[in-house]
Amino acid sequence: MTTFIRWLPIALAAVLPACGSAAAPAAPPSAAAGAPAPSTSAAAAAPTKWEDVLAAAKKEGQVAVYGPPGANYRQALVEPFESANPGIKVNFTGATGSDIGPRMLSERQAGKYLADLHIGGTTTMTDLLKPANALDPLAPLLLRPEVTDPSKWYQNKLWWADVEQKYVLMFEGGVSQLIVVNKTQVDPNSFSSYWDVLDAKYRGKIVASDIRKPGPGGGQSRFVWLTEELGKPFLQKLFGEMSITLSEDRRQMTDWLAQGRYAINFFPGGDEPREGIKQGLPLAFVDDRKLKEGFPMSAAFGAVVAPTNRPHPNAAIVYLNWLLGPQGQQAWQKALTNNSLRTDIPKDAVDPLYTPPASGKVFFASLEEYSKVELGPIRDTISQALEKKQ
Is the same domain home to 169 and 70? Predict the structure, then answer.
């Protein structure tokens, strides 16, 4: 098993060449025969100077953004941009990745190129939109120096999710916490390794999400599986020797933990523990950032792509550069309290537990190379361990 750390090369070192030099993208192979498409690509049509792009964007008057569902995402992605760019309206469509991806491809098959940008999770982008040749490279659209300057970003680089490192750009990166404890029973600061959870004194006192089932936990389980110091032996002991209780109800797990029925919740999944802490329940996270095996990170819904044949090519450029600039990322953090990968903006709105340290072992679970790791062997290992326990 190889170590999981991968240092991504810096994608952009300076302001990129004029957009007009970009080649026109090929029409997506999924397009319906004879379906009309714009005669030129957005990249080829874009003016070369920022002032010209901005003037052309105001003539277009709008930008169509497909993003995540929920009022907080609309709050982050609509009004702040419109306030900063009078004359350009944001037409925002919010939906889950499982809905938005097929919708975009269906629209394109009908010859309808409606989206200028898509903001969301990386899986839909790398597994659905990229194979359909529905995405343009982002580099020619990144015109602002404050966007392309790698020193403004975490670990001095732009974070690309796709293996080609040109289509899917991540701008959010939060530490994914694996362990919650009832702090009246367990000191959260007593852990220096994930293996500490497997101390015999915690046998029968651990509840965990059943990560064999669809839902949150895929990135966390891949982190454990691919981390050399953890891997299969850790999962075998956790599920086979610790008399663990499994649940698919994450709210119930949080309640059980707060009531003292269990001392530890491993693979907590959703936001329930964080909400419980806000409500004053006796819960605390073990700080993954301090554990010697490293920690997983996730982009959540914080990635962006540019579909080919954008209807408002200049407004898309203005929006993209605003989103990835300081103003856009501060708006994102303020509305969502999620950590931006920009390091030159205040982090007041972000819980420090979710802010990655400047250095350390980072497993960015949203990278395409990790998302394609099959979960089958992980599920089989857990099932076999549980059967052995019985």
Answer: yes
d(CA 181, CA 188): 7
For the chain, the domain total comes to: 2
Phi-psi sector, 38: left (phi>0), alpha (psi -120 to 50), beta: beta
Residue 135 is inside which H or E element, if any? strand 135-136
Q: What is the model's pTM? A: 0.83
Supply the Cα-derived Rg of the chain in whole angstroms.
22
The enclosing H or E element of 199 equals: none
pLDDT tens digits along 82-134: 999 999 999 999 998 889 999 999 999 999 999 999 999 999 999 999 999 99
**pLDDT 10s digits, 337-378:** 999 999 999 999 998 989 999 877 789 999 999 988 888 999
H/E segment holding residue 303: strand 303-307
Secondary structure element (H or E) that encloses residue 387, with its range: helix 376-389
Bridge partners of 13, per DSSP, are: none
CB 242 within 8 A of CB 202: yes
| C-alpha 196: how far from chain center | 28
Residues 119 and 159 in one domain: yes
- The answer as to whether 4 is a domain residue is no
Rounded alpha-carbon distances, angstroms, from residue 380 to 331, 375, 376? 42, 9, 6
Tell me the C-alpha distance between 132 and 318, whole Å: 25
Confirm if 135 and 316 have CB atoms less than 8 A apart: no
* Residue-level length of the chain: 390
